Automatic annotation (TrEMBL):
An MF annotation (GO) of this entry: DNA-binding transcription factor activity
Pfam entry (one): FCD
Gene3D superfamilies: GntR ligand-binding domain-like, Winged helix-like DNA-binding domain superfamily/Winged helix DNA-binding domain
Domain annotation HTH gntR-type: ranges: 81-148
Protein source organism: Paracoccus alkanivorans
Protein name: GntR family transcriptional regulator
Cross-referenced PANTHER family: GLUCONATE OPERON TRANSCRIPTIONAL REPRESSOR, TRANSCRIPTIONAL REGULATOR, GNTR FAMILY
Cited InterPro entries: GntR_C (IPR011711), TF_FadR/GntR_C (IPR008920), Tscrpt_reg_HTH_GntR (IPR000524), WH-like_DNA-bd_sf (IPR036388), WH_DNA-bd_sf (IPR036390)
Keyword entries, A-Z: DNA-binding, Transcription, Transcription regulation
Length: 307
């Protein structure tokens, strides 16, 4: 149980859960957090309490079938989100979904009053959003929503997909050297976890999708291209990439997850065989399918005129 849960007691945290509550976009929980007046700091903090099968993107974890206790965690170490990070995540999702119009001003004082927090966390949230290229901060004027079009989201996917495809080809070419062998062992482990998740009918789409991102990251690291890895990290940290994945966008059904698993197995087999052309082609195929699914989802959810 994390320290915040210990402070809140049983009402704020359920003992024995394995993963952290994910911010539920589009639900009443999101609506009350974003728009409800008079929200207190405690109301915001409850978004990090532990629940079965749910987690937040920051401090991401997922449950892997067949393991127990803390061993079921996969992913980064979990830490409670700061108030600033939660405010940034909430408004980031609204910007990507089109609920906030480009050029709209985000009032620092009004938001601080709305959530019952000081202006400091709100100001820090704006800086986080600026780093993610979702907000522009103009001195002495405030924070304004930047345009995030479907075309710009597609551009981000295309850049990442090109890098991942390049990495897969490079990984395949160096599969027989010592470092390449160590990386394929790790990739096989990631793939086995994906198989277990595919066999679990209760696996959450976001958990499955995150495992896919871990597989792609392992491929990027297996390429041996340090610059590519640094660019990949920048695309994660300095864009709205993580904001896109606050809601389920891909692998929503058991059938879709089975199809995605088969595609990943083909990519890993090509890397293992040292077939750089097949590795590049197959990984690009399913990454582009994911891109198209996300764009279709956002196309349907965005207000007319903001697409």
């Amino acid at each position: 149980m994390d320290s915040q849960c210990q402070q809140r007691g049983p009402a704020g945290c359920r003992t024995g859960r394995t993963v952290v509550r994910r911010y539920l976009v589009g639900s009443a929980r999101r609506d009350s957090f974003v728009t409800g007046p008079g929200k207190s700091k405690a109301d915001i903090v409850t978004m990090t309490r532990r629940e079965p099968g749910e987690r937040h993107e920051i401090g991401y974890a997922a449950s892997v079938p067949g393991l127990s206790g803390n061993a079921r965690h996969i992913g980064r170490n979990i830490r409670p989100l700061t108030i600033a990070e939660q405010v940034a995540d909430a408004f980031g999702v609204m910007i990507v979904e089109g609920s906030l119009a480009p050029g709209e001003r985000l009032g620092e004082e009004k938001l601080a009053e709305m959530y019952g927090v000081s202006r400091g966390p709100v100001r820090e949230a704006f800086r986080i959003l600026e780093k993610r290229r979702l907000v522009e901060i103009i001195p002495r004027r405030g924070a304004f929503v930047r345009p995030v079009t479907l075309a710009s989201i597609e551009d981000l996917f295309n850049v990442r997909n090109a890098l991942a495809s390049m990495a897969a080809a490079s990984f395949a070419r160096r599969i027989h050297d010592q470092e390449g062998h160590a990386r394929i062992v790790k990739l096989d482990r990631r793939l086995e976890q994906l198989r277990e998740m595919t066999a679990d009918p209760d696996c959450l789409p976001l958990d499955f999708t995150f495992q896919l991102t871990r597989i792609v990251y392992t491929v990027v690291m297996g390429s041996g291209n340090q610059l590519l890895g640094e660019i990949w990290a920048d695309l994660n940290n300095d864009t709205f990439w993580t904001t896109i994945w606050k809601t389920p966008q891909d692998s929503l059904t058991v059938e879709e997850r089975r199809r995605r698993l088969a595609q990943v197995e083909h990519s890993v087999a090509a890397i293992r065989d040292g077939d750089s052309d097949a590795a590049e082609t197959t990984i690009r195929l399913w990454l582009e399918e994911i891109r198209d699914n996300v764009l279709a989802n956002l196309q349907n959810s965005r207000p007319t005129g903001m697409r």
